[in-house]
TrEMBL record:
UniProt xrefs under InterPro entries: NTP_transf_5
Full protein name: Uncharacterized protein
Source organism per UniProt: Geofilum rubicundum JCM 15548
Top-level taxon in the UniProt lineage: Bacteria
Amino acid sequence: MPSKEKIFESLLQLMSLELIRPVDLEIDWSDQETIHAFVNQAERSGVASWCFYRLLQNPENKSAHPELMARLKQRYLAVLIDNQQKLKLFREIEKILASHDIPVALLKGMAMAFTVYPEEALRPMGDLDILVPEHLVLKARDVLLSAGCQSVHIPMSEWHEQHNAHIRAMRLPPHKYLIEIHSKLYATGSRLQPAQMAWEQSVVHRSTAFGNFPVLDYSLMVYHLASHLYYGYMMGGVRLGWLVDIAMVFEKAGDVAVLMEALLKINPGFNKELLITVGWATRLMRVEKRQQLEKWESSFTDFPEIKDFLEQQDAEVRHRWIVLKNLWRTPGINNKVKGAFYQLFPSREYMAHYYGVNGGKGLWKAYLKRLGEGRMG
């Protein structure tokens, strides 16, 4: 059986939007262990359904590689069912919030699955990520809790709910999926958060075969994907599916040079990193699209090493430092003081949820225990 690096190289080649056949990948597709390892790596990379769809574009693959296609089809059908259930949940949340005049937009996986990819089963997703106008995010939280949603994770304080990228994660029974309501793309103090993001200029409505969906415009969509990818890279790993996402938005857009110009106006202080991640994604684009990006080619950098895709590092310590940096960059002395206080002494709701205490000596003992463990992020 080929090494995991060889299998990943083959998977990477298959992700190119140029048409390719399995026989071109120098893999023994008659070997059951190889097929098993390939499909598992495709699933871990978030692209198993996309592999199945891409291979279907060449009719000979179905008869020439029945075992490979059957295994990938299983993943395709599983994602299809999962995404259809998440769409039902989104429509319920959308209806609840609309009844209180709170507009919504889809982010990340669902936005990609239902408005960018040609079929809804081609992009698996984790949580249901939804954006609402920043000034309405706490109202959205209270509306959803009143409508039967249950808190899954509790933020350190209401200050954190206002300044983090999203409020507490929730579930709406009987649905099992986590719902994350965002008020912004990143925390208030993050250098990744765009300075200006007016709702009317940021959100568009796209009609597809699956319905009408409010999503970010293509430039902000790429910005969110590319910045999230770079953040993940700095945290210790890269997911191949995120690169495919970026390539797919460029494939969907008409004039990619215009898209690139708009992208680089969103947060100029982060353009170096954006050019790095978009440059990585060009490896998966069709030649026609890559040619339209030649103007920026000198700013692109080498593709990540394969180990960056295969080996995920522990990011907890780095994440805590980023939380503290975001706190320091949050505008206003009052905000910095409040944020620092609640970082050290979270709200009673937080302490009751995670430590089982709500007041008195037990609360202060829990605070001291938490500080002693260094759990400040």
